[in-house]
Amino acid sequence: MPLIIDKAQEADIPKLLDIMYTAFADDPWDRIMFPQIPPPDRRGLTLAQWRDEVSVDPHTAFMKVVDTDLNESIAFARWHIYRTERPESEWKRAEAKGWDEGTNVEAANEFYYKIHEKREKVMGGKPHCCLNMLATHPYHQRRGAGRMLLRWGTDVADEAKTFPCYLEATPVGQHLYQSAGFEHVETLDMDLSKWGGEGIYYHYVMVRPAKGI
Ligand SMILES: CC(C)(COP(=O)(O)OP(=O)(O)OC[C@H]1O[C@@H](n2cnc3c(N)ncnc32)[C@H](O)[C@@H]1OP(=O)(O)O)[C@@H](O)C(=O)NCCC(=O)NCCS
């Protein structure tokens, strides 16, 4: 079952959302933000945002891995490639984003506030590659798709020579990123008990230094 990597198109977005929600189905923090996986007819805002990014956002690349026997996407990455220094007006978080119906808005806003706080602190306006999302459908995990998608972005950074790469890792993804040269620089913690869960859920802010410096 050969796997190929390709740029995703607008028409791929509904499938990529399916992959994301399925891949994160067991993630304790995702279940707090999205108590029920949104059915396709309640994904309108995210769908519109991602379609917009695919078609007009020059900084965003959605890459997909396709199983050519199944002729089906099985994994994807959402990379932001910032090739030049950006002014503060571009990278400073301006306002809370909208959420699809059924989202725990308070939890989601708190999480994304912390995500942006880390991004602003660690990278700010510097040129870099940011891995915003990586997900492989559970049936197809451990076949190398995640590594292919990660490699796509780190190759962009290595060709440019001066770009670091940045991401916030779930505990499941952390080992993969470490093995690709990412280093743990900060921790983002969410208190699950505040939302009826137990314990603290950690995301690991990781940076892969630029190769050419
Ligand atoms: C993290 C994830 C994207 C990896 O995708 P994948 O296609 O399975 O990755 P690969 O097959 O390229 O595996 C690469 C490495 O990831 C690690 N890995 C993959 N699946 C894993 C799992 N379920 N648990 C722990 N480590 C895992 C392994 O170290 C693997 O290396 P190995 O081949 O030496 O075992 C996938 O597990 C996933 O979608 N998880 C749920 C969503 C998530 O947490 N995404 C990361 C967001 S930061």
From TrEMBL:
It comes from Lepraria neglecta. Residues 3-211 form the N-acetyltransferase domain. It holds the Pfam family Acetyltransf_7. PANTHER family: GNAT FAMILY ACETYLTRANSFERASE, N-ACETYLTRANSFERASE DOMAIN-CONTAINING PROTEIN. InterPro entries: Acyl_CoA_acyltransferase, GNAT_dom, Trichothecene_AcTrans. One of its GO terms (molecular function) is acyltransferase activity, transferring groups other than amino-acyl groups. This is N-acetyltransferase domain-containing protein. PROSITE patterns: GNAT. CDD domains: NAT_SF (cd04301).
